[in-house]
Every structure is written in structure tokens, then in C-alpha cells.
Queue: 4 jobs
Job 1
Amino acid sequence: MFGQLYDRALTGERCWVRRDDGRVSRLPVHNWLGGRHADDRFDTTIVDMCEGPTLDLGCGPGRLVSYLVQRGVPALGVDLSATAVRLARSSGAPALHRDLFEPLPGTGRWQTVLLADGNVGLGGDPVRVLGRAAELLRSGGRCLVEFDSAAIGIDVGWVRLESASTIGPWFKWASVGIDSMPALAAEAGLAVAGIRHIGTRVVATLAAA
Ligand SMILES: C[S@@+](CC[C@H](N)C(=O)[O-])C[C@H]1O[C@@H](n2cnc3c(N)ncnc32)[C@H](O)[C@@H]1O
């Protein structure tokens, strides 16, 4: 989905995101890689919010999984990008190279599922992504979902990665505002358990029945 350019971005190529309406934004790959560019306040807070065995869907290079494991919390990342999974594993984060919609270990038994960094918008279908999270959780488990604090409603469109040398394929993406969260949660069979603002970012806790 993100394609080869995403893998190259993770290993240092400067990339940006173009939307089909012409908007261009930076690909915040440095935040995902952790280190001095990471949003430490966000990362520490969301890791504090995780309870019990935690599955990070679209874990990228695995910084959140790595923090969890360092704290002794059982955690697993899942990502479609082979480079992301390799980087995750090299930082001590267990990670599976797999589509999050394919069969995953522990289905129906995870205590926490993470959807950070806008991953609720993967594939442009937030109900499908939240429904998948609900399926993975145990009864009473919670999904921690970051919403886009700059978005209002659900902005579904086509985006692609670009660099100075390459243009990647278009893929569908949704930017999902927190105002849409109650309806999306209800559609996915999850109950709203709380909303937490972390600096300029916002995370909802959604509980499985
Ligand atoms: C916005 S980035 C989030 C980065 C990540 N949360 C981090 O902290 O580095 C989205 C990630 O989801 C992955 N991804 C996209 N579609 C996926 C899918 N269907 N299954 C698993 N991972 C997916 C991408 O490869 C990418 O690493």
C-alpha cells in the first residue's frame, strides 16, 4: 500500500505526501523512527495507557512496541512494510510482516490494540479498521485510537508518496476527526470509554463489549 518509497523514507530518503486535492505535507517519518525527533510526551502517555498484552496495528518501525517490551508489557507489532518490520525487530520490538486484515495470533484475546499516528484511516475505511480492532480484542479489552486533531469529519481521499526522484502509487487514506469518533465506534461495536488530549494530539479509548 505505502509502497517501496515508504521503505526508502524509513531508511533516509526525504519524502512528502501529496493528496489528490493538491495538498502536500511532510511525511513525519522521523517521529515514527523515534530518537530525538520523536514526540516523547505522546509516546510516553500512550504507552502508559496500554494495559496487558498489546497489539500495535501498522506499527511502522516499532517504537511503541519497543517501549512496551522494555517495560515488560507483552506486545506485538504488525506491519505491511518489510523494512518497517526489520527496523522494529532490530530495536527489540517483536513484529509480524503481515496485513492487519490477515489472520493474526491471539485474535479475540488482546487486552489493548493500538491505532496510533492516524492508522484508523488506513485504506480510507475507518469502520473496517475499527471493526478489525474490535475482532482482535478480548471482551473488556480497549482500543487506543489516535484521531486527527486537525480534521473535522472524515476526509477520505487518494494520497501518494513522492520524493525528488520517485512518485509512488496512489492509495486511499482517511483523515478522521474526533467529532466522528462516537458514530464510528458505535458502527464498529465499540463503546467510548474516554478521550485524552496529549499536547496537540487526541486519543480515544474504545472498549470491546
Ligand atoms: C501512518 S504509518 C504509522 C507508523 C507507526 N504507527 C509508527 O509509529 O511508526 C502507517 C503504517 O501502517 C502500515 N500499514 C498500512 N497498511 C497496512 C495494513 N493493511 N496492514 C498492516 N500495516 C499496514 C504502513 O506500512 C505504515 O508503517
Job 2
Amino acid sequence: MEIQEIKQRFGIIGNSPLLNRAIDIANQVAPTDISVLITGESGSGKEVFSHIIHQMSPRKHGPFIAVNCGAIPEGTIDSELFGHEKGAYTGAIGERKGYFETVNGGTIFLDEIAEMPLGTQARLLRVLESGQYIKVGSSKVEKTNVRVIAATNVDVYDAVKSGKFREDLYYRLNTVPLRIPPLRDRKEDIYLLFRKFTADFTAKYRSPPIQMNEEAQQMLVNYSWPGNVRQLKNIAEQLAVLERDHMITAQSLLQYIPQESSGNNLPMRINQQKKDDFSERDILYKVLFDMKRDMTDLKKLVVDIIENGGVPANYSGNPQVLNQLYRDIEVDGDRHHNHLHQNHQQEPTLTIQQPVVQNNNKELNITHEAQEVEESLSLMEKESDLIKKALKKHKGKRKFAAQELGISERTLYRKIKELNL
Ligand SMILES: Nc1ncnc2c1ncn2[C@@H]1O[C@H](COP(=O)(O)OP(=O)(O)O)[C@@H](O)[C@H]1O
Ligand SMILES: [Mg+2]
């Protein structure tokens, strides 16, 4: 089959030489029974390639199973793969068929192969060499005909050197190595993939089409994508769901791309035809990154101050920021009631609210103002979350829920209406 046809059939996006080379190898090795070791970073497409190989092999009508060796406890992996006899170990009530029995005539994909225990490696080597295996707790030799495709995101040869992986098995599996390039090594595919994913997700969620300005495209392409295609797909989905503004700018993209501590994802232009433009843009990005970092520092600091009543000893930031912050907090502290919303999984969010004045004679017009360090959208979400939690905790009793939230019953009542709870 032609490479383009394969891409079409399996929904593979991209046209970089490294990707095409990988597809070419998969295409050639598919019709054979040779074991394949697929290497590549997490999210780069290893599992996709295992499907391609199976589907283009004469075993395509046979079973296919993907097993994550890193996710099965060491004590049960032998029994999962090779089955066990009745009473093979404590708790083994009945007998069990292993994958090498159920997948007979098909393909087994062994993901995270470097995590496989040494004992299991010995059994696997035997199956690969002779098609023979023995169930746990049995002495009878069984036969099977299974093709093995293994995958790893670490260097298995390192495991060989440190004695954690059998060298003979390594060579046996690695007859045909198939390397899936990380996304950062096929930059020309990034925007293509992004467009495909956003088109799919906006159709799925019926949201308006997503467009991206030139700066944001550059940022997308020059990011290092540690989570590869999976991460890109994820971000496309988030944008399709969350982004109100469907022209994505560099600034809005920054909220979705995690910042790397080394800072090596600072966008750099590949082609520097427009020199002036380049430096200007670069500075802009730098400013944006710095702003985001400052914002995060500031949030942490504020939370620390509120929680501990003092500046953390290790604070190394700008003293001016600190002083300003102190002034703000002192001013607010007199007048306002500081309230820290802390949600178990979410980042702490600080809201500063008006005091709740108890006055029985007058109807007070209490305005609830919330100053948010984050975007207001997430504040609303968190607010409504907190309110729901408080109501649930106090079994719907508004008075107690309001007390817990540090707001008046009236405010709570209004919020419930506003947020449609
Ligand atoms: N070239 C590609 N074109 C389109 N989607 C891809 C491509 N490569 C990977 N994907 C998608 O990215 C995600 C991660 O791929 P997967 O094969 O699970 O990665 P890995 O097994 O290396 O962690 C999947 O949703 C897969 O469909
Ligand atoms: Mg995977």
C-alpha cells in the first residue's frame, strides 16, 4: 500500500520525512511475523503503529490485544499472559486462560516492555523462539501462534546494561526497530495536526471554528511538546471547549501550554527573513512568559502570607512587589474580610470580600466583590463548586452554608440564583 493511502486509512496526520519513514517500515514489516520493537516518547503514536502493523498483516482477522506491562502487578503478570492452573497459588480458584492462549492467531502489543519482570521475560523469550509456554502451576507445555509487537518510551538497552532486561530477549524483540519521532522533531506536522484536531473537536462540541494568528502558530510549533501528539490533541480539545475567543493569540495559548522551567520553549523563529519582526516578537513572548511567571509567584506568595501571616523565608522576588502587596493587604485587612477559598484538587484561589455586617434594623445592601487573580471564568466555576459543596455539607441549610463560606445568607441566595444552582 502507498504511504498516503495508509495515512488516510488509519487517520495518520503528518508529512515529515521521519514520520513517512516510520510508516514505510511498518508497511514493510507488517506482512511478516517478525517481532517489532517500537520506541518513542509517550504520546508519540506507538500504539497507533501497533494497530497499523496488525491491520496490515495476514492476522488482521485474528485477535489483537494491548497489554501494559507497567500496569500489571509483578505477582500476576505471568498468570495474565500465560494463564494458570486451578490452585496454582493462593486465591487461584479456577483455571485461567492467558493472553497468549486467547490471542492465538493474532497479535499481542506489549507496551512498556522495559517494565516486564525478569521471570516473565524468560517465558516471553521461550514463546518467541518456539511458540511454547507453560501455564503457572502446570508442567504441560502449550503451543501458541502469536505475533509480538513491543513498545517502550525508555532506552531498553540501558535496562540491559543494568541487568534489568535480558539481552537475548532485547535482540529477539528488536529484530526490526521502529522509531516514532517526537513531535518536536517533526515541526512541520504540528500545525497540520492541530488543525485536524481542532476541526474534529469543534465539530464534536458544536463550537465555532478555531483560528490562530501568526504568533500563536509560531509558539505552537516551537514548543517542545513533551507529551507529543497526545498533548497536542488534548490542548486542541481544551481550546474547542473553553476558548470564547476563536482567534487564538499567543497570549491565550500561553494559558494552555505549560511553562517549562528551563525556558527552552521560548519561541524562536525558524526562518529569520524578517529580522526586525523576529526580535520584536521574541521580546513580546519573553514579556508574556515573565508576566505569567510573576503572576504564579504572586499567587503563591499571597497564599503564603494569608496562611502563615508572614513572608516566606525563601521569598526571593521583587521587594517592590512585596511592599505593594503588603500595602494592599493592610488596607484590605482593615476594611475587608479576607477569605481564602481552598479546594482540594484545585489551586488555591484568593477572593477578597466585603464584610458581612450583622444588622437587624436596616436592610443592608451588601455588594459582594471578588478580586480574582485568575480569569473570571474559573472564579465562577470555583465559586459555584464551593457553594455546591457547602450546601451539600450542610444538607441544603443556607444559613450554615453561608457561614462556612464566609458570606451572608442573602449573598448566598443571590449567588444561587445568579449561578443557576
Ligand atoms: N500521526 C498522527 N496523526 C493523528 N493522530 C495521532 C498521530 N500519532 C498519534 N496520534 C494520536 O495521539 C494519541 C496518542 O497516540 P498513542 O499511539 O496512544 O501514543 P503512545 O502509545 O506513543 O503513547 C492517540 O489519540 C493517537 O490517535
Ligand atoms: Mg501508549
Job 3
Amino acid sequence: MAVLATQAIRRMRGGAQSHLMLASDGHPYVVKFQNNPQHIRVLANELMATRLAEAVGLSVPASEIVEVTDWLIQNSKELSLDLGQTQEQCRPGLQFGSRLVGGLMPGQVVDYLPEERLAEVKNLAEFFGMLVIDKWTCNSNGRQAVFYKRPREKRYAATFIDQGYCFNAGEWKFVDAPLRGVYARNLVYRGVVGWDSFEPWLSRAEELDPQKIWSIAEIVPPEWYGGDLAEIETLIERLLERRSRIRELITLFQESSRQPFPNWMTVSIGAIERQFPEPSWADTIRGPIM
Ligand SMILES: Nc1ncnc2c1ncn2[C@@H]1O[C@H](COP(=O)(O)OP(=O)(O)OP(=O)(O)O)[C@@H](O)[C@H]1O
Ligand SMILES: [Mg+2]
């Protein structure tokens, strides 16, 4: 079910050249168009990965399919895309919309925070949960978030945006690499002390009902991926299989040159043995062998 775009507000920054638009449900959306310069599948990826993140309880914007009519495009000069030397009108039809964080009310939304502000982000631990989604869906871009606070608040909250390069962008192939899909600053991962830090998001992803995953794929407009149902089915089947590999993919990041989890508490068997040495045979008092 789509919402209808009623008005173009302004252009947004970024490679996909999104437009901020008002929709019939009264909300503003950052809209990525089918003929964006990145790839048409960016729309499918945004919808699926944003909904998967939402399903495991992470802070992502509400996501919608936004219908933009030819009439609105013809009557809004700014609904065009710069394609190098040429300009092209936005293509009418079904587009992807990410509801504007903070809405049009006063407040502050920023793409980046200095380290001291970043360290105070209310839901910083959600970066651990988003790593689960990014590794699972093979996000081939860096992790991106926006940070929002109301006018008199001191601390920001993170909302995860730009899932367009999950599933390896237009490729729909899982080409994993340790440093893919991670946030640029190690600071956000400093609080990881072990596997428990990734909960509840990790278990929720591993145990997500396949029916839920299929239902997310079913709402993707076929024109967003070339119309071949077999392709999206293969993608989802592989995604389901990969749930058992999320921990392995996080471990590859853990062991990478970034050393992102300096506070991970490893208790090696060797260390325990040294602390509590095995008593020698002569000292051992055993009861009768039954
Ligand atoms: N839901 C949202 N709420 C608030 N701001 C948003 C939202 N979605 C996108 N933005 C803003 O629009 C910008 C572009 O969005 P996004 O990163 O999704 O697009 P992109 O074209 O893929 O960008 P990039 O070139 O960084 O990959 C973001 O940097 C952010 O400032
Ligand atoms: Mg981006």
C-alpha cells in the first residue's frame, strides 16, 4: 500500500539525489526515485533492510512506498536528477520514502557528531544491533545514521538511515568483507564486551520467523528489481541461510585491523587452568568407584 506524494519540498544531499516530499498521510519523506543515479534496486534494498532492522527492534525511520504522479513531476521544477552532463526528470510511479527524522518540527538533525557528543548518544548500543543487520544483509556501504534531539535536550538519539547498499547494492550477491557495513568511528563499538552486547537484536535476527521475512519481500514493487520473481526469491532464500553465519561475520570484523571491540572479555581455558591448577594425582581424594 502506497502513500501519495502531494508536494516537493527540497532536494537532499547524497549520491541518490533524494527529494524531501510531503505525502498524503501528512508526513514528510526523503524519497529515492527509481531513476536515481545509484541503482534502481537501492529502493528495494532500502525497503527490505529497513523493515528487517525494524523487525528486530532497531531505530530506523518509518519506511513507505510513495507514489509520485506524472502531474506532480511536471508541475514541480525541482523534481529532476543531475546525471553528469544531463538533467533528467524524476520518473513517476512508486518510489521509496524514508520518513523524515524529527519531522518538520523544530529540533536538530545532524549527520555527524563530534566524538564527545557521539559518546553520549542515548541509544549508542543500537550500533551493535545495526552491525548484526549490516553483516547479515551484506551492506557494502559504510553504516550511516542521523542524530536527533529536541530543542532543549542535551543528548542525541541515533536513527539508522541509508540501507540502499545492503545486499551489495544492485548486485544482490553476498560478497562479505570484514570492514564492510561498519560505522566509520570505532567509538560506537567500544561498549561491546561479548556476545551478550548484541542482544536482543542478534537472537531476534537469528530466530526471525521466515514468514515475516517473506512478507517484507512480497511488498517490494517488482519494477524495483526488474520484475523477475525468481531473483528476489533466491535473495531471500540466501538471506535465510545466512542467519546462521552472522556471528562468524561479526568475528571477522572483531579480528580485523580496526580492532573494534577492545573491551571484549575473553576468558580463555588456559587462563582458568592457570588460576585453578589441576591437583596432582597423589593429592586427589576420590570416593569409591561405583
Ligand atoms: N529519514 C531521514 N530523516 C532525516 N534525514 C534523512 C533521512 N533520510 C535521509 N536523510 C538525509 O538525507 C541525506 C541523504 O540520504 P541517504 O544517505 O539515504 O542518501 P544517499 O543519496 O544514498 O546518500 P550517500 O551519498 O551518503 O550514500 C542523509 O545524509 C541525511 O542527511
Ligand atoms: Mg547515504
Job 4
Amino acid sequence: MTIQIYNTLSRRKEVFRPIEENKVKMYVCGPTVYNYIHIGNARPAIVFDTVRKYFEFRGYEVNFVSNFTDVDDKLIKAANELGVDVPTVAQRFIDAYHEDVSALGCSRADVHPRVTESIDIIIEFIETLIEKDYAYESGGDVYYKTRSFEGYGKLSHQSIDELRSGARIEVGEKKQDALDFVLWKAAKEGEIYWDSPWGKGRPGWHIECSAMAKKFLGETIDIHAGGQDLSFPHHENEIAQSEALTGQTFANYWMHNGYINIDNEKMSKSLGNFVLVHDIIKHYDPQLIRFFMLSVHYRHPINYSEELLNQTKNGLDRLRTSFANLNHRLQSSTNLTSTNEEWLAKIASFRKDFIEAMDDDFNTANAISVLFELSKQANYYLQERNTAEVVIKAFLKEFETLFGVLGLTLAEDQLLDEEIEALIEKRIQARKNRDFALSDQIRDELKAKNIILEDTPQGTRWKRG
Ligand SMILES: [Zn+2]
């Protein structure tokens, strides 16, 4: 069996063939950290974390890179509004991002590169593009010569001429052609800047991903992923930059997750239906949000509403109840039944069905149907008077494994007070030892269970969120 991926580039499902055997080099465009993430940002985080976990489950070693855009116009604006500098805003929302996605069951990337830490490689990248005549300087800005890249439009399936008809040069832009895009922006008075061969300025948005992917994953990567809204122009521009520079294919597979609507409307600031993950996980189990997202195929649009979330909760509860009942029965099970082999074979068949669903372009919706079927069979088995420990254990293991692949936990998400106190004590010790990674991890762990910590001069206080 092989994994098939829908590739935006070819617009069809393709068999996944890694560059290096059993390895996956994966780059996912990360957030611009000027605010808490909204539910639309949560979708790619959950979806591509699941893709990663599934590859790992299938025996691949995944190198997962996801960037933080920690300087841009929105950050500069947010910093001005808050009366702090840009790095302070960025750090605040990078921390918040880690907390939120960790609560949603997402693992940290192997590397989370930041623009402000990558300025040298970005400048070097731009210099080479200028040398190769794919870019030019104009009044302190540097632009990419879009028309000089032959494959432009191949990801979004548009021709240069179609694109040209819709493009125009905005006031203040110093580009030669309406399709050219900015690689380096000259700093305005009072703005954060870095010195460059073209004067004081900062990178444009698209160039960071090309430079970071090359640095951390190499010239050609297996999978490049992000939200559907990024396919044009962001990903198209990334291809133009990277392939012009290296002469190699930038990414073999392009994956894009579908849009998210709120109560059947497009999410927008003006409609006031902006849903922040930070807020919803105060009221809902973050695991439920993950389960909800995965109950729809990642390429389909998803509609978010509290009503749908509550309906989904019934499903998740059903699965958890089966698991709890199995655990409960474990105590009273014996090893004497005649139908063990039959049941063990049946349980093993669920693994096969699950893999089949996930191999087919990560069809988590079908994979979750397999979980419901597993739960149904478990409930059926539990009606038998004599149950065998070996069968109950097989059911439990299957639940745990398959839930784990989807990044879901089965235990009721309730920590006892004394468990919370013990974790807080462990965190205090970690901080005394200046082990901030452990201290952050404990805080994230508690956050994931809806426990909010507050560090006060009198010590750490906690409350249930
Ligand atoms: Zn990107």
C-alpha cells in the first residue's frame, strides 16, 4: 500500500515518492504573529500536523519546518498601537501560538525559523536572483521580474497573460511591470530595518519561505503545504524565486487545505465573526476542535458553528465512552472464551481500513468512520457475558493507536487537583533550575487541559479555564 497525495500542481492524486527513502521533507507556511491565531489558522496547523503524524506512523522520518513571519506591516502597526517594539509583539504571539496549537494536539516543528533571524540568508538569496537577472533594485526596493520566470502560473493554473490583465502598479511602487513582486522593501522613516546592499529595509513576505526552506530542507523538498488562500500569489512566487535560483524543482507535492466559514459566512473582521482559538478553548475542549476539523476532508471547505461543534461532541463522547467501558471491563475479564481469534482478526481489520482511508490523500473523515465502527464493535463485544482480557486489550490498543495518529486523546480531559498541584510544583522547580523548555512544556500541557496558570509575586495560581 502506498500513500497518495492530491497535488495542487498536477490537480490529481499522485503516489507519494519521497526524495530519500523513508524520509519526508515538509515545509508548512506559518502564521504572521501580530495577533492570536483564529480558527482559520488552526485548520492548517491541525491538518498538516496530522499528515506528519500519519507519515511517522507509517514509518517515515519527517523533517517538519514551519516559519514565523515576525516582521511585516501588520506587526509594525500592532507594535505602534501597543506602544512596544516589533520583537516584543512577535514574541508575545509566538508564545501564544505555541500554547494554542499545543492545546490542539499539534507537535512543535523540528524548526520554527523566524524572518528576523534569517535576514542574512534572505539577502544572499536576493543577491543571487539579481546576479541571475531575475530581480532588480529600484529606489531602495528590490523586485522579482515575474515575466522572466517561464513557469509562472503553473501552480495556480493561470497564464501570464491572464494574470497581466488583472494586475496594476499601485501608487508608491517602483516596479517596472505590474506582475513584479517585492523581495526587499526600503524602510520608511521610523520603521524597523536591516542594512542591506540596497540600503536600509526589510524582506518582502514571499522570499522568507524560499530562503528558509532551502536552508533547512535543501533545494528540493517533498511536500510544501499551506492554506488554499496561499496558493496564489504566495506559493506561486515561492516557486518563481526558488526555481529561478536553483534550477531545480522546489517542491514535488503541493498540499492546500480548504477554507473555513463561520456560520456559513466568510470569516472577516468587518463581519465581526472572527473566532480566536485562544477564546474558544476557554469554553470547549481543544480536542473537540481537533476532532471537528478532522471530521471533514482537509481539501473540503468546513463550516464552523457552535451548533456543529456540539453535534460533533456527541460523536467524540461516544468514542470515549466505549474506551472507558473497555477499560472498566478489563478488571473483570478472564482469558477463557472460545471466540478470541475471531475477534482479534476483526480488530486487526480496523487497522487495515484506517490505513486505507488515510493512504487515500489523508482522508481523516473516513478514518474517523473507521473509529466509529471500532467503537460499535467494542460495544457489541461488551454485551457478552464472558469477555477475554486479550480481546479487551486489543480493542484498547487499537483505540489508543488510531486516536494517537490523529493527535487525539481518549482520556477524559480532567486533571485532579492534586495532579495539577504536582505539575505546578514540577514547573516551579524547572524554573529554579532555569530549565525554561520544561517549564514551558508543563504550562502548555496544563493549558491543553484547560488549566490556566498565573504567575504572581505570591506564587503560581491556577484556575480551570
Ligand atoms: Zn510561505
